[in-house]
Amino acid sequence: MAHHALPRWWGRPAAAAGGANALGETTVVRAEQGGRTPRARLGGLPGRFGVRNDGRDPAVAGAVLLLPDGEPESARRASAWSYAAVVPLGRALARAGRDDGLVVHSVRYRGRGWNGADARLAADATWAVEEVVRRYGDVPVCLAGHGMGGRAALRAAGHPAVNSVLALAPWLPEEDRAADPEPVRQLAGRQVLIVHGTNDARTDPELSYRLAERAKKAHRDICRFEVHSDGHALRQYQNEVQALAVDFVRGSLFTGTYARPVADALAAPPPLGLRMPLAAGFGRSLRA
Predict the structure, then answer these.
(1) Is 6 a member of any domain?
(2) 230 within domain boundaries
(3) Per-residue pLDDT tens for 208-220?
(4) Residue 269 falls within a domain, yes or no?
(5) Distance between CA 4 and CA 7 in Å, rounded?
(6) Are the CB atoms for 169 and 196 separated by under 8 Å?
(7) How many helices (H) and strands (E) does the chain have?
(8) Which of 18-27, 38-47, 211-220 has the lowest mean pLDDT?
(9) Given a cut of 90, is residue 86 above it in pLDDT?
(10) Virtual CA dihedral for 59, 62, 67, 68, nearest 10 degrees?
(11) Carries keyword Hydrolase (predicted)?
């Protein structure tokens, strides 16, 4: 397997707890049982798509929080590769929403594990929403997560500042009659888009369909797109997935309107609106 160098922005030193570093990252340190846990951080994007503080950007009118993938159980530090994997989506969103006043941050978890009832990634997502509110005031927030980050986005959606959720290939637990099902009540009043590749070998597409089906019974503003033959990383149709994400995020945070396929999916009853195929060339058709 080829080894690739980590992005140049990865691993830059963070500021002290509660401060900000050169990328505009804010950190938090939490105490547990007399000790200290690793830091959760609110980071920017690398390069020219990072958050600027020079006064040339429009006032922040909305925010996207990128929630990278993780693992069900782990005490290890968060994965650099998972963060790098969400950067292309973040850049696409930042580019498309710049004139709208969109700011995009990545959430750098305390660790990579969900860890059962601790639901650590969801807790870090909730902290990140609070940090956005502290920094930018009363702006709408979209939680955009991949894999385990998709689960965190869905779980943390109950925060009052969250108006939308984008869950890409979300990791969801196997259904167990002896355990409570994954909650969906927190999705009420939110716009929700789930995207899943039909050939995902890491997270079961059928589980995201079942969650969407349960949620749709009470909350109509939910849709789900299937990406035919694509896998967990959604690389085969990356351009189409990014175009779909951009349309959904801008519609949810700013314009209030969506491309016809998204609007149709939101309006359609199950199973039609929850098994919508993502058409090849989706982004090109919007620009035509």
Answers:
(1) no
(2) yes
(3) 999 999 999 989 9
(4) yes
(5) 9
(6) yes
(7) 7, 11
(8) 18-27
(9) yes
(10) -60
(11) yes
The CA-atom distances, in angstroms, between 8 and each of 80, 89, 115 are: 11, 18, 30
Q: What are phi and psi of 102, to 5 degrees?
A: -85, 135
* C-alpha R_g of the chain: 18
Point out the least confidently predicted range of 31-35, 62-66, 220-224, 230-234.
31-35
Q: What is the rounded CA–CA span in Å between residue 107 and residue 105?
A: 7
pLDDT mean across residues, the chain: 84
Residue 87: is its pLDDT beyond 50? Answer: yes
How many domains does the structure of the chain reveal?
1
The answer to whether 164 and 255 are in contact (CB under 8 A) is: no
Two tokens at 209?
């369909």
11 domain-assigned: no
CA distance 265 to 185: 20
Q: Cis bond leading into 183, ω under 30°?
A: no
- pLDDT tens digits for range 147-195: 999 999 999 999 999 999 999 999 999 876 667 899 999 999 999 999 9
Q: Give SS3 for 36.
A: strand
Q: Name residues whose C-beta falls within 8 Å of residue 192's C-beta, 6 or more positions apart in sequence.
A: 154, 157, 164, 165, 167, 212, 215, 219, 221, 222, 223
CATH value at residue 144: 3.40.50.1820
Would you call 18 exposed, middle or buried from its count of C-beta atoms within 10 A (0-12, 13-18, 19+)? exposed
Domain, as residue range, for 121? 32-287
Sequence length of the chain is: 288
Q: Are 147 and 203 in contact (CB under 8 A)?
A: yes
Mean pLDDT of all residues in 44-71: 74
What residues pair up with 225 in beta bridges, in sequence order?
Answer: 195, 276
* Residue type present at position 212: A
pTM of the model: 0.84
Average pLDDT, integer, range 8-31:
40
